[in-house]
């Protein structure tokens, strides 16, 4: 089927420079760590990270045990976007117009606690890149539900039988409403797509937003070697479409000919173990509607990766 040559090509297309060091404290199989490792390869050395309270505030470490070969600025939970905005403006005032300021936050620091600052920075079109690595709960503090937690999911604050009763907040629609220059979704299962989007974002001025789905082995109840597979399944089932919005124009980057049943994605995750057949049918119907709506308003630029 040509899988091996294709994977060799994908590997060769990935920059070999490393800006995220090995030996960090992420959980085995952490897809957030894998995703940000790839992102830094595209962003390059002229990058400074602003990191709010999240898993990455621990993973990034402190001197002399730091993870990044890049400058990192830690900030309080609600203030990631405002801190990044101030840092970028300060650099510009000093004559530095080349350093990329990248804000890194989890779903708690994006969908919930950081939403006000995020909205304000997007509305002002601040010249920063905001990355939300979304593991769909407050994983760093005990796996409590967030507004990014999907319907039917168990968590520390929504244990069975009181699982999450509300749908996941659509952060991309919220961001789109701010009419920013660029927003995109990505997963580590499609590294060429992820790298291409970050390389494009580097060339754009103004507010740029990334929503990266990051399966979490302990939080989702899966094995550490399943995160890339689950990232791919999320795309193939339509749970997490890969697309970008550039000046209001939507482009679908990966377009499965036929969506796989959502049960394929839900089945291996212990957080969904209490779902009934009726619940799964409800989730499937929601995905089908959302997928068709996205198809109706998008161009396509299909990417095939092994």
Gist of the model:
The chain is built from twelve helices and nine strands. With 306 residues, it is α/β, with parallel strands linked by helices.
Structure commentary:
The chain is an alpha/beta fold and 306 residues long. It has 12 helices and 9 strands. Strands 2-1-3-4-6-5-7-8-9 form a 9-stranded mixed β-sheet, sandwiched between helices. Helix 2 crosses helix 8 and helix 4 runs parallel beside helix 6. The longest helix has 20 residues. It is globular, with a radius of gyration of 18 Å.
Q: What is the helix/strand order? A: HHEHEHEHHEHEHEHHEEHHE
Write down the oligomeric state: single chain
Radius of gyration: 18 Å
Tell me the major beta sheet.
9 strands, mixed
How many helices in DSSP terms? 12
Q: What's the CATH H-level superfamily name?
A: Thiamin diphosphate (ThDP)-binding fold, Pyr/PP domains
* Proportion of beta-strand residues: 5-15%
The end-to-end span amounts to 10 Å
Q: Helicity range of the residues?
A: 25-40%
